[in-house]
């Protein structure tokens, strides 16, 4: 085994959230770039795998071919419809034009003639959702990305939305976007949650009433573009 691949594999095996024995990850080199392939159980495992691999000395680049195992298998059309429903129904994105691309054809689902806050184009191939276009803030980009992750059957999300004009990122921006996401999530009542972010590490504190709510809040944080780690200190009060 190549020494670099051996180091990466060892790093992945030490992380309990990844568990490569239950969810195998194929690791190979394409020139001097590392390729990771496999189907993982959640977004935390995917992000941690990419972060750990990138931290190994000698890794010059990574091609991400990691996918998530969906809770239910759905066709691309059903996945696309779910993303469209979330985005069209989001008050924050109401001034964004929304388009869908399918087999080379682009259909406009919502046209915004005045005061447009951007445009979002949605496409799905083999369960991988791609968002393209322009939005007016990092919060718009982050929330659209989370809505894509919420779509049943999705296997991955490629968030290619460009923020125009460019906006400097910050922990305050991450906190604001996550508050909006938690308030939007129909499975949560976030009144008793506290959010903080430091160097892209999000900490969740406070109270929830079920194990499912605790897990859902953590996954919502992991789904956010730019979040590198989530520390879940939520307490369950029944």
Describe the overall structure:
The protein is α/β, with parallel strands linked by helices. It folds into 3 domains: 3-68, 2-Layer Sandwich (Histidine-containing Protein, Chain: A), CATH 3.30.1340; 76-163, no CATH class; 171-236, Histidine-containing Protein, Chain: A (2-Layer Sandwich), CATH 3.30.1340. Helices cover 33% and strands 32% of the residues. It has 6 helices and 13 strands. The strands form 3 sheets. Strands 4, 5, 6, 7, 8 and 9 form a 6-stranded mixed sheet that branches. Strands 10, 11, 12 and 13 form a 4-stranded mixed sheet that branches. A hairpin with a 2-residue loop joins β6 (118-125) and β7 (128-135). α3 (76-88) packs across α4. The longest helix has 14 residues, at 171-184. The chain starts with a helix and ends with a strand. 30% of the residues are buried.
Any idea how many domains? 3
Compute the separation of the termini in Å: 50 Å
Main sheet: strands, sense, barrel: 6 strands, mixed
Category by helix and strand content: alpha/beta
Radius of gyration of CA atoms, rounded to a whole number: 18 Å
Topology of helices and strands:
Blueprint: H1 3-14, E1 25-30, E2 33-40, H2 43-55, E3 62-68, H3 76-88, E4 96-102, E5 105-110, E6 118-125, E7 128-135, H4 138-150, E8 156-159, E9 162-163, H5 171-184, E10 193-198, E11 201-208, H6 211-223, E12 229-232, E13 235-236
Parallel strand pairs: 2-3, 4-6, 7-8, 7-9, 11-12, 11-13
Antiparallel strand pairs: 1-2, 4-5, 6-7, 10-11
Brief synopsis:
The protein has 238 residues and is an alpha/beta fold. Helices cover 33% and strands 32% of the residues.
């Amino acid at each position: 085994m190549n020494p670099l691949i051996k180091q990466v594999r060892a790093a992945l095996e030490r992380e309990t959230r990844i568990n490569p024995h239950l969810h195998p990850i194929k690791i190979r080199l394409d020139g001097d770039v590392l390729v990771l392939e496999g189907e993982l159980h959640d977004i935390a495992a995917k992000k941690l795998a990419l972060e750990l691999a990138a931290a190994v000395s000698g890794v010059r680049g990574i091609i991400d071919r990691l996918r998530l195992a969906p809770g239910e298998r759905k066709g691309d059309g059903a996945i696309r419809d779910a993303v469209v429903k979330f985005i069209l129904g989001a008050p924050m994105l109401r001034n964004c034009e929304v388009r869908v691309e399918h087999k080379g054809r682009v259909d406009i689902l919502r046209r915004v003639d005045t005061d447009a806050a951007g445009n979002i184009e949605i496409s799905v191939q083999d369960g991988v959702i791609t968002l393209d276009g322009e939005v007016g803030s990092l919060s718009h980009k982050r929330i659209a990305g989370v809505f894509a992750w919420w779509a049943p059957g999705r296997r991955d999300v490629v968030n290619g939305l460009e923020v125009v004009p460019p906006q400097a990122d910050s922990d305050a921006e991450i906190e604001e976007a996550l508050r909006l996401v938690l308030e939007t999530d129909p499975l949560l009542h976030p009144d008793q949650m506290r959010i903080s972010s430091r160097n892209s590490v999000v900490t969740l504190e406070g109270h929830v009433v079920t194990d499912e709510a605790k897990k859902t809040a953590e996954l919502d944080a992991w789904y956010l573009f730019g979040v590198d780690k989530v520390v879940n200190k939520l307490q369950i009060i029944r």
